[in-house]
Write a structure and sequence with these properties.
The structure is a homodimer. The first copy, chain A, is α/β, with parallel strands linked by helices. Chain A has helices spanning 8-15, 19-26, 34-47, 53-60, 76-91, 105-117, 132-141, 164-178, 192-207, 223-234, 248-260, 294-310, and strands spanning 65-70, 95-100, 122-126, 144-147, 157-162, 183-187, 216-218, 242-245, 270-275, 288-291, 318-321, 324-326. Chain A has a six-stranded parallel sheet, with helices on both faces. A six-stranded mixed sheet of chain A has the order 7-6-8-9-10-12, sandwiched between helices. The first copy, chain A, is elongated. At the A-B interface, helix 4, helix 5, strand 2, helix 6 and helix 11 of A face helix 4, helix 5, strand 2, helix 6 and helix 11 of B. Chain B binds a DNA duplex through residues 7-9, 17-24, 27, 31-33, 36, 51-52, 54-61.
Chain lengths: 342, 342
Amino acid sequence: MSEARPTIHDVAARAGVSKSLVSLAMRGSPKVSERSRSLILAAAAELGYRPNAAARSLADRRSHTVGVLVLDLHNPVFAEILDGVQSEVRTHGYSTMLVTGGADPDLEQAELEKLLEFQVEGLIVIAHRLPGSVLRRIAKECPLVVVTRDDVTGPSIDTVRNDDVAGARLAVEHLVALGHRRIVHLSGGDNRVSQDRRDGYLEAMRTAGLAGQSCVIDGALTDAGGYSAAQQALDLEPRPTAMFAANDMSALGAIAAVQDRGLGVPGDVSVVGYDGMSLGALRTLSLTTVAQPLGEMGALAARRLFDRIDHPRRRSVRLRVDAALVPRGSTAPPRRSDHPRG
Amino acid sequence: MSEARPTIHDVAARAGVSKSLVSLAMRGSPKVSERSRSLILAAAAELGYRPNAAARSLADRRSHTVGVLVLDLHNPVFAEILDGVQSEVRTHGYSTMLVTGGADPDLEQAELEKLLEFQVEGLIVIAHRLPGSVLRRIAKECPLVVVTRDDVTGPSIDTVRNDDVAGARLAVEHLVALGHRRIVHLSGGDNRVSQDRRDGYLEAMRTAGLAGQSCVIDGALTDAGGYSAAQQALDLEPRPTAMFAANDMSALGAIAAVQDRGLGVPGDVSVVGYDGMSLGALRTLSLTTVAQPLGEMGALAARRLFDRIDHPRRRSVRLRVDAALVPRGSTAPPRRSDHPRG
DNA sequence: CTGAAAGCGCTAACAA
DNA sequence: TTGTTAGCGCTTTCAG
């Protein structure tokens, strides 16, 4: 245990120089003589000196830290976005403070406020359940970029997302092309992203002349949510031949529900997910999905953030990335007997 | 954007009181008159005042923050341990700073040092690849509890883990009881946890009189690692009837490899994992596994940490939790034709 | 109950 | 090149 960690003062005394010289030397300034530098570095090493970030942040008035709020650490999708964020943040020489709100608006807000108290210089929010008012208020204090949504705007809010409506359409079109007509949508609940995906579903069904077949079942963006929604879907008469789940995790749940009924995927029911988490590529799962460029989205977000940290009055931007349908083993044409025009 | 955020000074001026009174009021001290308190709170609200954590930490000489290093955010297992940590940390009124090292020793060390610079009052390390020397040096500066390993010890290092050797034995015994003899182990590579699980496997095989059948194939604790290890296993002559994977993620990969060969799980090959991640409970996966009480381990770790923060000279403890075999759908008796004494 | 003053560890002018 | 002097925003004695 540390009794009184050594401070810059102790190092200065030991090296026989002044505090400010130590400060410069520790940060590798060129205006320190070789002799002093090595003296200082040696003293620091012997003492086990470690600069105090709080003190530095206070004096410097910069924390060299960005805050990241992520919706849910249980969904590996967010880890993939985070990879992109982290590597970019690191190359800028910044640290990241990572927090989760567990999809709870109050918790999310509390965590964000805490980040602000730590004087983060910028904020990246990877999906959230926050009211726009909160987000806008927070953006007044600190540059903010939101990943996966762009419904909340403001002068210092940048956004990075894919077009969920268009992505959902891809999913439906894929199923329609395979010959499916009774395609249900397992919704992700009452949040922006899920609403968009549902709208895309409805739109594509209409375009395909299947408006009458449209059926949205309420679920959630989790495996459990997909499981229970799929159970309900399987009770429908006639039984749907395909399901479009609001995200990959819920698609996994849906597949489980199908199999629990003694049915096969894609033999009896085709399932499409959304997000493109790398787990879905496993043959065990082999999930057909609408894939977002997750890591790239994270990196883009971080780049936007630093750009704004450097140029506070730049206009805010809304970035769009493209999602793509990745056909895998969870979709196939419907059985002939299920086919209306079989 | 914030030009000059309001400080405690501004609030004091606006409320017509002194700085120190504001400080007390903000932290809900009872020695502030009702009148002053409401004046101060109102002023703070109007100004949008937010205390500066760096300044507080400096003056207070406590950060009210604990640091958490986690091996890998892609493995949902760690999110489950984290749940336990976070909720416990929150009830203690602390914040947590979360970082990852991505199983890279150098990165892990760098992240830990950064945490120390931020003056965290304690450290929880959820799995790691660090040399003992580093860990011990760090523990000198700050209370430390390591989750999933207890091979590195020190006067202020607490540990929380399950017995991986015993857990691995459970897995093998389960397979043996089902009638398997050609049981291979897909190892997780060259790290403490994987070594223990391998040792448990070898031990149990010996005990079962199957020492001659023992076969360890090198992989990694990831889905990809399990996939490639399983591929090699499937090339063996005669083909193994069961695989014990070093963890759940690699078990998922192994199942994929089996299925890619046109074989079935558990029909042709049984697969057992390790960890007990909740994803494995899904019927889609239905993974037989050796389950650790993940959330509980996280909570225990956090409680140990706060206990030591309060009692710095307490003796270090090594906590053991029990793992349990959870039989699910990925294991079954071998086919009769595969059965040596069919 | 309230206010003044000192100082946490560091950086940043400014002098020397 | 180096040392001195002010703070950064907050908490904390210690007097009133």
